[in-house]
Amino acid sequence: MTDFRVGFGYDVHRLVEGRDLVIGGVRIPYHLGLLGHSDADVLIHALCDALLGASGNGDIGKHFPDSDPEYKGISSMILLEHVMAKLTAEGWRLSNADMTLVAQRPKIAPYIPEIKAVLSEVMKCDACRINVKATTTEGLGFTGAGEGMAAYAVALIQKK
Ligand code: MG
Fold first, then answer.
1. Residue 15's Cα: distance from chain center in Å?
2. Ligand 1: distance of its center to the CA of 158 in Å?
């Protein structure tokens, strides 16, 4: 019998000057970047929380505390690699992951194929198991005002 588990993740980071904008492991040209202890890749953080949630492993803050200098400026792809390695060691395989980035600007759609390619490589799965979407909030709220970005993710994992 196959055991299926679903997990959900949500994350927010503030947009500031003087930082690179990295979304789903892809550097996107923009005059602002996301502020955080790591590279502040909001999409990967939501995805990691979905995967950790599905496998009953708590959340990203428990595994990679932002008080730990080891994780300062770290690429979130490394965090995702660690999360996937943990799940694989526990016998879990990814069924699929779906995520939505909430950002007023810049336009993310042109970068989605590259983000999917990067994520599927890090997660060692077919790109068809990963879906990435982007939306604005029609100018409403902190994302609409361009003060920050948010991301939501769900992941389904399975074990035989
Ligand atoms: Mg985060």
1. 16
2. 25
- For domain 4-159, give the fold: 60s Ribosomal Protein L30; Chain: A; (3.30.1330)
Domain positions in the chain: 4-159
C-alpha distance from residue 79 to each of 83, 134, 139 (Å): 6, 22, 31
Kindly calculate the radius of gyration of the chain based on its CA atoms and give it in whole angstroms.
15
Query: Band of the pLDDT at 65, cuts 50, 70, 90?
Result: confident
Cα(16) to centroid(ligand 1), Å:
15
* Nearest residue to 19 (alpha-carbon basis) of 40, 43, 5: 40
CA of 58 to the centre of ligand 1 (A): 14
SS3 assignment, position 70: helix
pTM comes to: 0.97
Q: Ligand 1 centre from 88 Cα, in Å?
A: 23
